Amino acid sequence: MHSHVYQPEPAPATHGRLIRWAWLYDRVVNWLMLGRARELRATTVDLARIQPGETILDVGCGTGDLTLAAKTRAGQAGKVSGIDAAPEMIAVARRKAAHAQSEVDFRVSAVEALPFPDATFDVVLSSLMMHHLPLAVKQQGLGEIHRVLKPGGRLVIIDMQRPTTLVGRAIIVLSGHAVLREGVQDLPPLMSEAGFARVQASDTAWRMLGLVVGWVDG
After folding, report:
1. Positive or negative, the Cα torsion across 126, 176, 22, 30?
2. Fewest CB atoms within 10 A around its CB: which of 79, 93, 151, 204?
3. Count of structural domains, the chain
């Protein structure tokens, strides 16, 4: 009798940073957000103005908390997918979805090669992921996101601000990000280059996080 050893899905080829410690990820994020991780997810869904029935993609979805919150807001008629290049993250996200009896399509994939047809999604979400990507991968990923968004669709990014003050730099160091040369405020030019017709940037209730929203012509 042959024994079957579980083999996780292989990680895709990517030059982006993979976070493989999925078992600890939720606790680390909650610590970084001073115990307000759940509030951050809810705020992201609010800022994205997700409507019932919309089709949504969460890129760099991690263990799936934001993706599942988006599915709750999109409702039964909404179709929601989440991708992450780390198989360990997707395994945890799938377990969460099964436990919540939530129909979310979680896939192992890199942002620079999205496994979806053109003009599939109304909304793409990105939370705390872009700062892990080198410039070339950001450019490729934003191009792919633009491709899979429908005309009139939107990309909503919440991510780390590049610190501009001594206090801000201290906060970033304490959060475990000793070097952060590019922040969310550096994304608008890249988004415009990727084809987004209109891009707006703003602060959030979290000092070290910023918001950028880009729209596809439609």
Report:
1. negative
2. 151
3. 1
Top pLDDT among 177 and 75 is at: 75
CA distances from 182 to 111, 136, 147, 160, 179 (A): 18, 13, 24, 9, 9
> pLDDT, tens digit, for every residue of 156-200?
999 988 755 554 444 444 444 444 566 888 999 999 999 999 999
Query: Is residue 59 assigned to a domain?
Result: yes
The DSSP string of 84-148 is ES-HHHHHHHHHHHHHHT--EEEEE--GGG-SS-TT-EEEEEEES-GGGS-HHHHHHHHHHHHHH
Helix (H, G, I), strand (E, B) or coil at 178: coil
Say if residue 1 is exposed, middle or buried (CB neighbours under 10 Å; 0-12, 13-18, 19+): exposed
Q: Which helix (H) or strand (E) holds 46?
A: helix 37-47
Position 218 scores a pLDDT of 80
Is 132 a residue whose pLDDT tops 60?
yes
User: What's the confidence (pLDDT) of residue 76?
Assistant: 94
pTM of the model: 0.86
By residue range, what is the domain housing residue 98?
A: 22-215
CATH number of the domain encompassing residue 145: 3.40.50.150
Secondary structure (3-state) at 77? coil
